[in-house]
Write a structure and sequence with these properties.
Elements: H1 30-48, H2 58-82, H3 87-116, H4 122-133, H5 137-146, H6 161-188, H7 192-217, H8 219-222, H9 226-243, H10 250-270, H11 283-295, H12 302-308, H13 311-318, H14 320-338, H15 344-371, H16 373-376, H17 379-418, E1 458-459, E2 467-471, E3 481-486, H18 488-491, H19 494-504, E4 507-512, E5 522-526, H20 533-553, E6 557-561, E7 567-570, H21 577-594, E8 598-602, H22 616-619, E9 629-630, H23 631-634, H24 639-645, E10 652-655, E11 666-667, E12 670-671, E13 674-675, H25 685-690, H26 692-699
Parallel strand pairs: 3-4, 3-6, 6-8, 8-10
Antiparallel strand pairs: 1-2, 2-4, 5-7, 9-11, 12-13
Helix pairs in contact: 1-2, 1-13, 1-14, 2-6, 2-9, 2-11, 3-4, 3-14, 3-15, 3-17, 4-17, 5-6, 6-7, 6-9, 7-9, 9-11, 10-11, 14-15, 19-26, 21-24
């Protein structure tokens, strides 16, 4: 079951009024409650102190195994008792058990986000709340992780619903699978238990293989998508199928239980964000959970049994679902409510508040939702209530999106007025500019979304989604063709290049692929992650194709940039990585200059997320200068700059605008009333566009 399923093996059955009493008993297993307590505790600790409990995310895997174990046990009891599963009743029970608390937290989070979160976060919050209401949040996050620009977005109050979405999708499919296997067994005149065991084993093995492969080829998506996680539910299901009535002996049960808990703890302490997960390493927490389940409930030596039954542990397991729901919105919104980053004392208070709120939610929402005589009267009533609640949350979400539109309109008016001022944006740092408050508050905070809008002059050539052909020539015959190429750090210069293109009446061709450098050397990975080999291969193929295309077209100029400080290549020379990257860049640039192009290399702007919280400007909206960072820290050595300086190629020109982001001492997040960044490491397109005159001056 989900993080919430309360009853144990003996409590399943059809749970109908006519069902035998033994199918309606509720037996709470202390070991399962202890597993829940451990799982939710690890998740909360990981979210609160990610640098200490680095692998606490494995708590989610523990929940998945428990879910597979319990739901399969319940469904098998009903199948054995009646030869079928009343699907409407089953799904209605899931709705009554899960949705009241889940929808309450989503609704409260939406309302609180209007109060405390900056309006730049309202749209993404509303979108993810809607996705979570429909239990599709995991697929939305998987889609975002494909987009390297979107993957840097700040987490919303609903992000943790990804795991609940995976579980709900499991609940939707699993009963149908068991019924199909049961029917197949009857048709083939074989044991239904054996047929179900074979079917579940096949799903588990195939799911594990998929997890191992997809985690290597596409780790960002693997973390969220349901098929990759299916084997974890299957592992729990196999325990329920193989245990039967057999009980482990006391010594065996103790060893299994201790070993299982040790494996879970070990994964939590030694895994981290760089661990290729889920993949085959998910075996550690999954097998640990399986061992605890196999050990059974009572046959352990007294000290361990007493520890697992300790009331605080049992209480934590009892409120684990609501605690999981509540803790994350606190983490997201508290910094904005406090107008500062969280301190350890804040985190402790958040945990206490979340536990208290979870206890109240368990008593007054979870339990009452399950026992409501009105809802339990018929599945139709349950589903009708679900539809009404879904519609209400949708109305709240749409209202929030519309409120964002209103705020954006106000911001545009303020921006238009501010643009007339002589110290607007980077102009505040022009030599000799007399600007009294160069690093004061932003006039128009960034609103997220599409940071680099594609103008109507652009079309997609030949169905290649990574490219755009943009005609700013106004029909002038023989207009120069220029290219803008690279990763998302080339794309965030698009506003500036397009403004120059309109001035010069160019035809601009763009080619971007997130996280990918345009080099011929072997690409190892982006952002320190060398495990996404599928993306690396895609990058190398794309880079060669675009490099060759530019050479073949012989443009007048090429503008290029990339997040080179976060990309790694290996040319086999054994030289320092920095030197390898600069050498690889020079090879690409020479290919273009040999084809007759001038190459303009846009130096990367100062770092943001790597040197400060990406939310720093929002948390210090009144005094954004508090987010300033020493220039030598914010602007370390850039392979792009070094590549140009050592190129000995007069047709390769460096465009370095660091002086428009930084004073001689520090680099800032707001300059001249304009936000420099729109997310963790990309330029705000308004600020980039305001740099167009500087670009034009450097290339004239």
């Amino acid at each position: 079951m989900s993080i919430v399923e309360r009853s144990a093996v003996g409590s399943g059955g059809r749970l109908l009024k006519q069902a035998p009493q033994h199918l309606r008993r509720r037996i709470v297993r202390a070991d399962i409650q202890a597993l829940r307590a451990l799982a939710v505790g690890l998740v909360v600790l990981n979210h609160m102190w990610p640098d200490e409990v680095t692998g606490g995310y494995v708590g989610v895997d523990v929940f998945f195994v428990i879910s597979g174990f319990l739901i399969t046990s319940h469904l098998l009891k009903e199948l054995n008792a009646s030869g079928s599963i009343r699907l409407k009743s089953f799904y209605a029970r899931r709705v009554r058990r899960l949705l009241p608390a889940a929808f309450l937290v989503l609704a409260v989070s939406l309302i609180c986000s209007l109060v405390w979160l900056p309006f730049s976060r309202w749209v993404t919050t509303a979108q993810e709340v809607l996705a979570s209401t429909l239990y599709a949040e995991n697929w939305l996050l998987a889609a975002k992780s494909i987009d390297y620009s979107a993957s840097t977005a700040t987490a919303t109050v609903a992000q943790h619903y990804w795991s609940l979405s995976v579980e709900e999708q499991f609940y939707l499919v699993w009963p149908l699978l068991l019924v199909a296997l049961f029917a197949l067994a009857a048709r083939l005149h074989v044991s239904s238990r054996r047929m179900i065991w074979i079917g579940v084993s096949a799903v588990t093995v195939l799911g594990f293989l998929a997890s191992a492969v997809v985690t290597v080829l596409s780790p960002e998506q693997a973390y969220f998508v349901t098929p990759v996680r299916a084997w974890e539910f299957g592992a729990g299901a196999l325990v329920s199928l193989t245990m039967g009535q057999r009980r482990a002996r006391p010594l065996s049960a103790t060893v299994l239980s201790l070993g299982g808990f040790a494996m879970i703890w070990g994964a939590a302490l030694f895994f981290g964000k760089e661990t290729a997960f889920p993949g085959w390493l998910a075996v550690v927490p999954v097998l640990g959970t399986v061992l605890v389940l196999v050990a059974g409930s009572d046959d352990r030596f007294a000290p361990l049994r007493t520890t697992l039954s300790w009331p605080p542990i049992q209480y934590l397991g009892n409120i684990s679902y609501s605690l999981y729901l509540w803790h994350w919105p606190f983490i997201v919104m508290a910094p904005y409510a406090l107008s500062r980053p969280l301190e350890n004392s804040d985190r402790i208070l958040i945990v206490v508040a979340a536990v208290i709120l979870a206890g109240l939610t368990k008593s007054f929402v979870e339990d009452r939702g399950q026992t409501s005589s009105y809802l339990s009267h018929s599945p139709r009533r349950t589903f009708s209530a679900m539809a009404v609640a879904t519609a209400l949350i949708a109305v709240l979400a749409v209202t929030q999106i519309q409120a964002t539109d209103f705020k954006n309109a106000e911001a545009k008016q303020a921006s238009a007025a501010a643009a007339l001022q002589p110290c607007h944006g980077p102009m505040a740092l022009l030599p000799g500019a007399d600007c009294p408050d160069r690093f004061g508050p932003s006039v128009t905070p960034v609103t997220g979304g599409d940071n680099a809008p594609t103008p109507v002059e652009c079309v997609i050539p030949d169905g290649d989604e990574s490219r755009r052909d943009c005609d700013f020539s106004a029909g002038v015959a023989g207009a120069d063709v220029v290219w803008l190429v690279g990763d998302s750090h080339a794309q965030h210069w698009q506003s500036a290049v397009f403004k120059v293109a309109r001035e010069r009446q160019w035809i601009v061709k763009t080619a971007y692929l997130g996280g990918c450098p345009l080099v011929t050397a072997h690409f190892q990975g982006f952002d320190g992650a060398g495990r996404d080999q599928g993306h690396a291969r895609k990058c190398m193929s794309w880079a060669k194709s675009i490099t060759d295309t530019v050479v073949a077209e012989r443009p007048a100029a090429v503008f290029t940039s990339s997040f080179a400080r976060e990309q790694a290549v290996d040319d086999g020379s054994g030289k320092p990585p920095f030197d390898q990257f600069t050498a690889a860049l020079r090879v690409t640039w020479k290919n273009w200059t040999d084809a007759g192009a001038n190459v303009y290399v846009l130096a990367d702007p100062p770092l943001n997320k790597a040197v400060r919280s990406p939310d720093c400007t929002l948390l210090h909206a009144g005094v954004p200068a508090d987010c300033a960072v020493e220039r030598n820290l914010a602007q370390p050595a850039d392979p792009l700059v070094a590549g140009v300086e050592g190129a000995a190629n007069g047709n390769v020109v460096l465009l370095d605008f660091t002086d428009y982001f930084c004073s001689p001492e520090k680099c800032y997040t707001v300059v001249g009333g304009v936000d420099v960044y729109y997310d963790a490491n990309h330029l705000n397109h308004e600020y980039a566009e305001l740099l167009a005159p500087m670009v034009l001056d450097r290339i004239s």
